[in-house]
Write a structure and sequence with these properties.
By secondary structure, the protein is of the alpha/beta class. About 45% of the residues lie in helices and about 15% in strands. The structure holds NADP nicotinamide-adenine-dinucleotide phosphate. The site of NADP nicotinamide-adenine-dinucleotide phosphate has 28 residues, from helix 1 and helix 6.
C-alpha cells in the first residue's frame, strides 16, 4: 500500500494516540507530507520513537505526554501549540481504548474509562482547537470512530457508544463550524492490524476475516491515507461525514 501524496507544508497538526498503531502512522504520514506534528499520548518513550521516525525522515515533530481525558492537560497542549506555532490547522482525535465485555458483566469503570478516553478526550481536544480554528477561519478536525460505531458488536456496548458518539458529535460540530471554513469528519476503521487487535489472538482474527469481504485485515496506512486526504485542500467541501475504511465490512 503506497502513501497518498499531499502537500501539508506549513500546517500544524496535533495527533492524539500517536505513540503506536494507527496514530503513529498518521503522525508519520502527516510529517512526511510537510506538516509540523505535535504527537500526543501518555507513553513518553514511545512518543519519542514516533518523533524520531518523523525527524529522521526530514520532518518536524514534537512529543507531549498528555492524558486526553484530562481537561487541564489538553488545554495546555492546545494553548501551548497556538502560542508556539500561532496556528493549529489539523486535529486528529485518534486516542482510544477498548474494555470489551458483555454488558451484564460490565463494571462501571469499564464503561466510564472507554467513554471518558474515546469521547470526552475527543470533545476536549475539539473544543480547545475549534476556538482557534474558527477565528483563523480554517481547520480540519478528524475523529477516529470505528465500524463498531456504525453497527453493533457483542461485547462492545461501551466502545460502540463512544464511537457512535463521535459520529454524532462530529455531525453537529460540522454544522457549527462549516461557515468558518473548518471541516469535521470521522473515519471508521474496520479491523486494522495494530497492537489493539494483536491482543485478540490468531483464532479470533481468523474468524473476523471471514466477516470482511476483502478477507484480510487493513493496515494503519490505509487509515492514514484517509487522514491525509481529509486534511488536504482537496477535501475542503467535505464535512460531517464518516468514511469507513473496512474492506467492505459495512457495505
Ligand atoms: P492502539 O494501538 O491501542 O493505540 C491507541 C493509542 O491511544 C496509543 O497511542 C495510546 O497511547 C493512546 N491512548 C490511549 N488512552 C489514552 C489516553 N487516556 N490519553 C492519551 N492517549 C491515549 O490502538 P489503534 O489500533 O492504533 O487504534 C487507534 C484508534 O483507532 C482508536 O481510537 C481505536 O478505537 C480506533 N480503531 C482501531 C481499530 C483497529 O482495528 N485497530 C478499528 C477501529 C477503530 P498511550 O498508551 O501511550 O497513552
Amino acid at each position: 500500500m503506497s502513501s497518498l501524496s499531499v502537500d501539508l507544508s506549513g500546517k500544524i497538526a496535533i495527533v492524539t494516540g500517536a505513540s503506536q498503531g494507527i496514530g503513529r502512522v498518521c503522525a508519520v504520514e502527516l510529517g512526511r507530507s510537510g506538516a509540523t506534528v505535535i504527537c500526543v499520548a501518555r507513553n513518553a518513550e514511545k512518543l519519542n520513537e514516533t518523533v524520531n521516525e518523523i525527524t529522521e525522515a526530514g520532518g518536524t515533530a514534537e512529543a507531549i505526554s498528555c492524558d486526553v481525558s484530562d481537561r487541564e492537560s489538553v488545554e495546555s497542549v492546545v494553548d501551548g501549540a497556538k502560542e508556539k506555532y500561532d496556528n493549529i490547522d489539523i486535529l486528529v482525535n485518534n486516542a482510544g481504548i477498548t474494555r470489551d465485555t458483555l454488558m451484564p458483566a460490565m463494571e462501571d469503570d469499564d464503561w466510564d474509562a472507554v467513554i471518558t478516553t474515546n469521547l470526552r478526550g475527543a470533545f476536549l481536544f475539539a473544543r480547545a482547537c475549534s476556538r482557534y480554528m474558527m477565528r483563523a477561519r480554517t481547520g480540519r478536525i478528524i475523529n477516529m470512530s470505528s465500524v463498531s460505531g456504525i453497527k453493533g458488536n457483542a461485547g462492545q456496548t461501551n466502545y460502540s457508544a463512544s464511537k457512535a458518539g463521535l459520529i454524532g458529535m462530529s455531525k453537529s460540530l460540522s454544522c457549527e463550524l462549516a461557515r468558518r471554513g473548518v471541516t469535521v469528519n470521522c473515519i471508521a476503521p474496520g479491523f486494522i492490524e495494530t497492537e489493539m487487535t494483536a491482543v485478540l489472538g490468531e483464532a479470533i482474527i481468523d474468524a473476523a476475516k471471514q466477516n470482511i469481504p476483502a478477507r484480510k485485515l487493513g493496515q494503519p496506512i490505509d487509515v492514514a491515507n484517509c487522514v491525509l486526504f481529509l486534511a488536504s485542500d482537496a477535501a475542503a467541501y467535505i464535512t460531517g461525514q464518516t468514511l469507513a475504511v473496512d474492506g467492505g465490512m459495512t457495505a
